[in-house]
Amino acid sequence: MRIGFLPIDDRPVCYTLPELITQCNSDIEILMPDRNSLGNLTKYADTERIFEWLRGLENLDALILSLDTAAYGGLISSRRCPETFEQIKEKILKLKEILKEKSCKIYAFSSVMRISNNNVNEEEKPYWDRWGKKIFDYSYQTHKLGCESCIHNVIPTDILEDYLNTRKRNFEINKIYLEWQKEGLFDTLIFSKDDCAEYGFNVQEAKFLQDLGGFVKTGADEIPMSLLSRAITDNLDCGLKVTPIFLEPEGKNLISNYEDISIEKSVKGQLELAGCEIVEEKEADIILYVNNFKTRQGEIVMKVPTESFSESFTPALDKPFALADVRFANGSDNSFVKELFKNSEILKSENFLGYSAWNTSANSLGSLICAMICRYCAKKNYNKKAVEKLNLTRFLDDWAYQANIRQELSAPDSEELAKKMKIYENMLKDVLGIENMPEVKYSFPWKRLFEVEIEFN
Question: Do 279 and 308 contact (CB within 8 A), yes or no?
C-alpha cells in the first residue's frame, strides 16, 4: 500500500512519528516531502516544492493532506501568514488541479484557527504577547453575550482588525474546501479545532461548518495520523473491533485540558474516525486501556496536580492491547508506568500494540490508535526492529523526558539531556526486552523544551 503523506510541519511527532509507525508494517510504504521543505516555528513551508512533490507522486492508494501546509505553509503559519484571501485562494486552486489528477482516495484536514488564552506569542502573531488574553476575552464574551463585547474598546483598532481579517480569511478558505468535498474531491475532510473553550469565534465557526455539512473534530497534531489510520483500514480491509476500558470509569465523562468533549467521547470519536468498530470486550479484536483521570487532568509542566494511578494493573495478555496514558496532559503518569514495569510480561508480550502519553488526550489517542492498527494489520509479519524503536521512542519521550527530565532542565541542552537519559535507556532495555539497544541521539529541533527529537544509530 503506497500512501502519500503531507505533514503539518517538521516536528518529530508530525514527521518522524508517522514514519516510525508505518515502518512497523512492511505492507505499507509512506511517501513524504523532503523535511527541509516543511515549515517550523519560524519559517513557512516551501509550497512550490511541495506542489512539485505532489505532482510527482504516482501509483498511490491514498493521499493524506494537511491543507494548512499547502495553503499557508503550516499550522502555525496559518495564524501568522500575511497573504490575503485572494492570494491564498489562487494557491489552493493550483492544489486542486494537482489533486484532480490523482486516482487515489484523498484524506484531508484543515484547522479552525485557534484562540489561545494567554499572552504568549511563540506560535502567534507578534502582538499576541500583549493583546492575546484580551482578544481571547473579546472572542469569548462576544459569543457568549450574542453581541459585541465592550472589550474591543481596549484593544487597538488596527490589531483587532488584523486579527479578525485573518480569522475571516481562514474561515472563507475552509468553506471553499467544504465545497470541494461536496464535489467529490476528498474521500474524507476534517476540520480540526484545538485549545477550545466553551465560547469563542472558533466555536462559532466550527458550528457553522457543521451546519453546512462539514465534519469537525477536536484535536490537531494527531489528525493526519487519524486519517492515516482510516486510509489503512479502508485499503487493507482490516476494520477492527475495539473495546475501550477506562481505568477510572467514574471519570470518563470529564473533559481533558485543551478540549471541549469528555474523554469517553474523545476515545470513541478517535476510534470511529480511524475506521474501528466499538464493541463489547468478548467481541473485541483489541482492548484499548485508557489511564484516565478521576477528577481533573493533571499537567506536570504547568504544575497542575491530579491523583495518580494507585491500583494494580494487569491487562489480559491473551488478546492484543494498547495503552493510552492520558491522566496527565503532555507526559506520562509516573505511577502508571511504575505499575507497568512491575510485570515484565506486559510490555514484552506479542500482544502489546503500543503506548502513548504525548501532549493532549487527542494527540495521544490518535497516534496510538494509528500505531495499533498498523501493528495489528501486519499480523505476524510485523517489523520487530521498527516496533522496538517506536515503543522505545514513546517511553523515552513521553515518560523519561516529558514526565521527568524536562522538569530538571532550564534550557535546551542536548548533551545534558543525553547524560540524564542514560538511566532511563537502561531501564527500558530491560522492561521492553530489547536485545541490542541502539545508540540514541537527542536534539531540540525547535530550540525549545516543548519537544525533543529522538534518533537511533
Answer: no
Contacts of 427 (CB under 8 A, 6+ apart): 341
Q: Which helix (H) or strand (E) holds 422?
A: helix 414-431
pTM: 0.95
Residue 100 in grid coordinates:
484532480
CA geometry: angle 241, 246, 248, nearest 5 deg: 175
Which grid coordinates are listed for 43? 519559517
With b for 16 or more beta-carbon neighbours within 10 A and e for fewer, the 166-192 pattern comes to bbebbbebbebbbebbeeebbbbbbbb
pLDDT in tens, 300-334: 998 999 999 999 999 989 999 999 999 999 999 99
Q: For residue 284, what is the DSSP state?
A: -
Name, in order, each residue with C-beta under 8 angstroms of 52's C-beta and a sequence gap of 6 or more.
none
In whole angstroms, give the CA distance from residue 263 to residue 31: 32
Contacts of 436 (CB under 8 A, 6+ apart): none
Residue 432 sits at φ, ψ, to 5 deg, of -90, -10
Nearest CA among 390, 399, 409 for reference residue 449: 409
Which of 108-128 are b and which e, b meaning 16 or more Cβ less than 10 Å from the residue's Cβ?
bbbbbbbbbbebebeebbebb
**Cα–Cα–Cα angle for 23, 386, 65, rounded to 5 degrees:** 30
CA 369 to the chain's CA centroid:
11
For residues 109 and 227, the answer to whether their CB atoms sit within 8 Å is: yes
Return d(Cα 107, Cα 267) in angstroms, integer. 20
